[in-house]
Write a structure and sequence with these properties.
Blueprint (H helix, E strand, L loop, with lengths): L6 H10 L9 H12 L1 H19 L8 H18 L2
């Protein structure tokens, strides 16, 4: 696990957090197609993974540092919206 997320989640984040990726190869289509074809699901998944990663980088726990947790969610939602305009 690196930065609080697994290697599989890291690869998923690389694909989903890239605005130029609209469609995937058949090998990954089964796993990621619902996220890529539905912008809201894609946004939710990217935000979830990035917040999880940032919380781990800062050494925080979502239950004890819930204010920072929700602040990060808002920051990541804004970041996603700016990148995927």
């Amino acid at each position: 696990m690196t930065n609080g997320i697994s290697a599989k989640e890291t690869k998923e984040l690389e694909i989903l957090d890239n605005p130029s990726v609209q469609f995937t190869a058949p090998a990954t289509a089964g796993l990621l197609l619902p996220f890529i074809m539905n912008p809201n699901k894609r946004r939710d998944r990217v935000v979830k993974l990035r917040v999880k990663m940032r919380m781990a980088e800062e050494g925080l726990d979502e239950k004890t540092n819930w204010q920072r947790y929700y602040q990060l969610i808002q920051e990541e939602e804004r970041r996603f919206d700016d990148r995927f305009k």
